[in-house]
Amino acid sequence: MTDLTLADWQSRADSFRPETRLFIDGDYVDAVEGNRFESINPADRSVVAAFSAGNEKDIDRAVAAAKVSFKTGVWSKMAPRDRMNVLYRLADLVDENAKELALMETLDMGKPINDCLTMDIPFVADTFRYFAECIDKIEGSITNTENDVLSLILRQPIGVVGAISPWNFPLLMAAWKVAPALAAGNSTVLKPAEQSPMSCLKLAKLFMEAGGPAGVLNVVPGLGEEAGKALALHMDVSKVSFTGSTEVGKLMLIYAGQSNMKKVSLECGGKSPNIFLGDLVGDKLEQAAEAAAHAIYLNMGEVCSAGSRILVDQKIHGDFLEAFKEKGKDLYKPGNPLDPGCNMGPLVDHQSQDRVLGAVAQAKVEGATLEFGGDTPGGDLSAGAYVNPTLFSGVNNTMTIARAETFGPVASMIPFNGLDEALSIANDSIYGLAAAVWTNDLNLAHQFVRDIEAGTVFVNSYDEGDMTQPFGGFKQSGNAKDKCFESLLSYTQAKAAWFRFS
Ligand code: NAD
Hints:
This protein is of the alpha/beta class. It folds into two domains: 9-14 and 24-32 and 45-268 and 479-496, Aldehyde Dehydrogenase, Chain A, domain 1 (3-Layer(aba) Sandwich), CATH 3.40.605; 273-467, Aldehyde Dehydrogenase, Chain A, domain 2, CATH 3.40.309. It is built from 16 helices and 21 strands. Helix 2 (56-72) runs parallel beside helix 8 (224-233). The chain is globular and about 75 Å long. The mean pLDDT is 97.
């Protein structure tokens, strides 16, 4: 919890003047054509600032700067220990600037300030520390081959990496791309989501303060179809690392095919099943029901891995539903996100609010039972893009609410009979990002872990983990892993070198 009060944060917000220009080749610069777009505070519809909107020309400038920095080797050939030190200093600077970065996230996308201070920003610092630690652990190998031959495999950086990030954890999702890309020695151009460019622009400055060379980390905010597309189509970008919707993720593959066959790593949407087996009773059932509510309502439900499909065994369904209503209904209360006591802000924008309320209306039409929520808070919050925590029961897996990503605080409860049926429902989805099972039965837990089609799975927990844990999806949730050493290696390429001695 922060030492500042709501009044303190409000006064900081009122006098806050963020940097609004692009960051290219070590400096803030205006967009070539001078275009701007507004970031709107979703809590009250006020304009936070008008940001330079990068387009193809700005992306060209940024990629050119990144390419020069890569070729000169100022970063790509820097001794690993020196590169480590820069990223360690950057992690420290993130910590030192935590309050300002947190305020940026709250104003840009409505995330509660306390979440920013206790989750997003510390996790960003962890991300840079973890990948800094990994830098001199990237090893090539010598293969076992003929006597007169030395066969080496080198791991080298790829070149210019384009990172395209979403708004739901603005700086953290960007850090999951940029930190391993930089650690591996690449130069980068980051295109943050247009809803939340502020903290990424600040990160670029902190990178320079930490001793990073100019041109190595460039940040070009702009619209997806302009700046994002230009980056993904660029002939001098060797890899694009994308986090966002499945729909746009598919475009990334097309752009790569239309340009230079760049590598594409995708972290996309989800409709993750959180499964509660029939052996849960008493306190365990109550705790599990509360955990189910956290898994869907945290961050206003705007979490790619949110446990939005709550599958409950028929044996415990009645008790579980009651426990969820009792524990889950008031666990998250919409409020002013600048209030340190608030745990639920508005959705990112009013378009999202309309989309989520539309999904609620559709679920009712399709026959789901609204248990609570499905509406917006009134009073002081009526101007904001809020949606109250919502629960539907009586959902079946053919309903839209069980199939499409809602990306809001809407839970669907789906009954089943036994683990086999739960697995078949859970796996009947185009997505495969995260999944969890809650049970005391080790055999069933093991069967679940083996048979569930998801990249990140939990047993008796949800959305836990640390930097060593690969995070990424199966199926249309993506083709890559963030965090973890494997992610770092994906920002390198293997070169085989065959030395003949004779
Ligand atoms: P989005 O796909 O609309 O946008 C993501 C990024 O792509 C933004 O920077 C946007 O400007 C850019 N973009 C949009 N259209 C583009 C185009 N035609 N060409 C190039 N770039 C384009 O997603 P969003 O609304 O910002 O984020 C929410 C989505 O992100 C959800 O689907 C969520 O599940 C997903 N997400 C996934 C993960 C994960 O790790 N799997 C993490 C966070 C969010």
